[in-house]
Amino acid sequence: MNYKRILLKLSGEALMGDKQYGIDINRVAQYASEIKSVHDYGVEIAIVIGGGNIYRGLSAEKSGMDRVQADYMGMLATVINSMALQDALEKINIKTRLLTAIKMEQICEPFIRRRAIRHLEKRRIVIFGAGTGNPYFTTDTAASLRAIEIQADVVLKGTRVDGIYTEDPEKNPQAQKYESLSFKEAYNKNLNVMDMTAFTLCEENKLPIVVFDMNLPGNLLRLVQGETIGTLVS
Length: 234
Hints:
Layout: E1 5-10, H1 25-41, E2 44-49, H2 57-62, H3 67-91, E3 96-100, E4 109-110, H4 113-121, E5 125-129, H5 139-149, E6 154-159, E7 164-165, E8 177-178, E9 180-181, H6 183-188, H7 196-204, E10 209-213, H8 219-224, E11 231-233
Parallel strand pairs: 1-2, 1-6, 2-5, 3-4, 3-5, 6-10, 9-11
Antiparallel strand pairs: 7-8, 10-11
């Protein structure tokens, strides 16, 4: 299947590269190059990045911090990651816009749906920061919500593994990979595709999800060109 408009979801941890925390500039540059190849192919691209490499609200809550405060701190972490990716993309001459769910006029635009769609139509890469702007919601949910709002064809979830498996393939090498699944199958098998809120949003709005290996060079481009890469949930 060829996609005209995609929402690419990246985890914050993916930006760490080989580091223990923070941002690996080389990894960000690699991702920017992968994204540029898809942009040059003619696909409209929106991006949501997590913040787990800098700050994770859920783990902070477990150590005694107020959950709402911790989640807002996590949202700010996603903006830092978004700015890093924006910088890497603009260094290779791609026009971008960073839109956030929390107002920060000096560094980005507030999220306005019509404006986001207009940027995409003008061939700008749109990066959505600060999640949904609400505590208790993950960046997976933000990715699903924004994808629906901008009428994306698919959510592409870039991970370290090349799809969805019966078990964690990093822990069990015998785990079997699924080529495709229905939403119902993924739910019944209790497969950890996205959190339930994000997953349900995609199911209700008939928005397919593809889980794939973002670290394999050329994978993202081959995927949007129609090759069977990763696991499709639809």
